[in-house]
């Protein structure tokens, strides 16, 4: 398998080699051994196990795959800041012309430029800096805290402790001032005893402030973004004493738990008693609180966009929310106006106005007699007008006969079909003739125009004539009609 060099093999040798490799993979033949006596995994591909030709390997081996480059001597140390070495008494050749140190030149000198450099004065020769060079690994080069001295943080702690002591001292002085003012104002002994009780019950303000500083640990869940993202952390997802929702039902086919979003939409225990369950799935949160308002906001944005409004929920959520609020205000105003019009026209049966006494008690001085069917026999002062139309004659798809009302002095027809849609036979015949003439004119290419501009409103009779004249190609009776 792991051959040293590529040599020519006959077809038979190649077949035997393949059979041997298959046997080694199946465990029927012993694995190949390298020059160190270690077994070579038969499942390693040949392009990995075979050594390159330039290595001149005579025996099978995997040394060419091993790491041949040794790791350098990486260090975790850091520069010794501000360390000084030897300090000369006179200027040395090759040193800095400004300060006289050997570790840098005049261009890199960090001291103040002298009027006359150390090269010419031989006075105040600066000591040599400690120059170090480290060979850091990948992580060491990118470690931002490399070289940090943790002992320096004690100064930060000391500053905070001094600030805390000063704050407590100031609060104590303020508290003593308040007590002295109360003692001077009240000279009564009873008042003094009451002050003592108040002092006993008063909470130390320093402790209150300390507890106020710890308010950052109280993480509350607030939905801010349009996507419903919460500013809370993992701490407020559930109480740690409760069982995790993904452990309520260990059945594989139960409600699915998404570990990335920590959500379980369905109820893990649908057959359990609702009074005993503290968790019924995340879908209950999708139908409560601000979720419904957010859903209505999205629907309003979609419908407004379809009707030509320049609104997009994801691109401009604040604009969409303001438009939705203005839409709701206008809708309520229209509802109230419509309600006022109806109330003004028909009145309000549920109003708190006093009902007339004759209607409340059902008494009046007019005497009216009724028959068994409820019709008035006598006593009616105003006679009902009789219709001038024939009774039990229904024309033009009417459901009852025409009745003439005295109030409007007009004949109104009781029908389920609107008045505009009732077809007139004479108009229908005229429309049929017009449709026939129009079709004949269309067939004549000499009279057909390229772009005809005319204003012709289509009436109901025209549409009925068009439907009657149109040939339905899928109609099985079209040949019979023609």
From TrEMBL:
GO terms for cellular component: spliceosomal complex. GO terms for molecular function: pre-mRNA 3'-splice site binding. Residues 9-25 have a biased composition (Basic and acidic residues). Residues 136-399 form the Pre-mRNA-splicing factor SLU7 domain. InterPro entries: Slu7_dom (IPR021715), Splicing_factor_SLU7 (IPR039974). GO terms for biological process: mRNA splicing, via spliceosome. Residues 1-43, 179-206 are annotated as: Disordered. It is found in: Nucleus. Residues 186-199 have a biased composition (Acidic residues). Keywords: mRNA processing, mRNA splicing, Nucleus, Spliceosome. Associated with the spliceosome. Involved in pre-mRNA splicing. Belongs to the SLU7 family. This is Pre-mRNA-splicing factor SLU7. It comes from Zea mays.
């Amino acid at each position: 398998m792991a051959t040293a060099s590529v040599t020519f093999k006959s077809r038979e040798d190649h077949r035997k080699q393949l059979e041997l490799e298959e046997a080694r993979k199946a465990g029927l033949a012993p694995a190949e051994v390298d020059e160190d006596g270690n077994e070579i995994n038969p499942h390693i591909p040949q392009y990995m196990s075979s050594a390159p030709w330039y290595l001149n390997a005579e025996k099978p081996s995997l040394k060419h795959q091993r790491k041949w480059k040794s790791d350098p001597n990486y260090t975790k140390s850091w520069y010794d800041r501000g360390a000084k070495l030897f300090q000369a008494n006179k200027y040395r050749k090759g040193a800095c012309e400004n300060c006289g140190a050997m570790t840098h030149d005049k261009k890199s000198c960090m001291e103040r430029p002298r009027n006359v450099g150390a090269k010419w004065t031989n006075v105040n020769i600066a000591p040599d800096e400690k120059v170090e060079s480290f060979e850091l690994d990948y992580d060491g080069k990118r470690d931002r805290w490399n070289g940090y001295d943790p002992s320096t943080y004690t100064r930060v702690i000391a500053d905070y402790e001094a600030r805390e002591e000063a704050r407590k001292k100031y609060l104590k002085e303020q508290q003593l001032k308040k007590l002295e003012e109360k003692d001077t104002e009240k000279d009564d002994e009873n008042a003094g005893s009451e002050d003592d009780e108040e002092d006993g019950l008063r909470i130390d303000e320093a402790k209150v402030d300390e507890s106020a500083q710890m308010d950052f640990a109280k993480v509350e869940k607030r939905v801010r973004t349009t996507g419903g993202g919460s500013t809370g952390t993992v701490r407020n997802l559930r109480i740690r004493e409760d069982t995790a929702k993904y452990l309520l039902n260990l059945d594989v086919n139960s409600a699915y738990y998404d570990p990335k979003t920590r959500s379980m939409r369905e109820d893990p225990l649908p057959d359990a008693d609702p009074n005993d369950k503290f968790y019924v799935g995340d879908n209950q949160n999708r139908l409560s609180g601000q979720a419904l308002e957010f859903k209505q906001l999205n629907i309003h944005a979609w419908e407004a966009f379809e009707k030509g409004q320049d609104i997009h929920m994801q691109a401009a959520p604040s604009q969409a929310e303001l438009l939705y609020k203005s839409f709701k205000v206008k809708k309520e105003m229209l509802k109230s106006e419509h309600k006022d019009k109806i109330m003004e026209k028909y009145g309000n049966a549920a109003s708190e106005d006093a009902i007339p006494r004759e209607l409340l008690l059902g008494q009046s001085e007019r005497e009216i007699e009724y028959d068994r069917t409820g019709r008035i026999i006598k006593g009616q002062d105003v006679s009902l007008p009789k219709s001038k139309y024939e009774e039990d004659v229904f024309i033009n798809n009417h459901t009852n006969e025409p009745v003439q009302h005295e109030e409007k002095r007009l004949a109104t027809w009781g029908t389920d079909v609107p008045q505009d849609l009732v077809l007139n036979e004479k108009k229908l015949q005229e429309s049929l003739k017009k449709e026939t003439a129009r079709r004949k004119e269309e067939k004549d290419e000499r009279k057909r125009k390229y772009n005809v501009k005319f204003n012709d409103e289509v009436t109901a009779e025209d549409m009925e004539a068009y439907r009657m004249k149109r040939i339905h190609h899928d109609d099985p009776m079209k040949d019979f009609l023609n």
